[in-house]
Predict the 3D structure of the following.
Amino acid sequence: MGEKVDVVRGSLSPLRRRVLEELREPASATTVAARLGESRQRVNYHLRELEKAGLVEVVELRQRRGLKERVVRATARTVVVAPEVVGSPSPAEQDRFAADTLLAVTARAFGDVAEMRERAVQEDKRLVTFTIETDVGFAEPADISRFATDLAARVADLVASYDSPQTARRYRLIIGGHPTPASDQEREDMP
């Protein structure tokens, strides 16, 4: 993982992130440069670096003015950066209420599921997962702690009633919570 972390760390400058955003649909360096108001040479340099990092792939080579023009696209719709890229949280910071802990756990889940999904596709199998998502409102900050404690106890009881240690079908259950992001309109209305 260390090598991948170094590649991503060096690959996602602000300009490279903008280039990746433009490459949701295939385009050439010339097209991307025009959209971003940058020189073709500068964009082409960043495209080559993104390609080395595996974040961009060539989808077409076409003749244009006596030269071969490369048409490329981003290899993924979303790039999630593992916490190691910006520094892992220290053990003291890893409590169940720390944002870094939630980020580390979800990043690990993202990587695990992406890898298993890729294997399932290669083996022409279905990866069986489940997702539960909801919003909850808390009247007071202290309610968050009480809710988490109550939820942990109820989940422990539920796990105990279903857990079969000898089975090969082991599942990792992740439960986290974060504030619901404000919509653009809500941000405008904030004092």
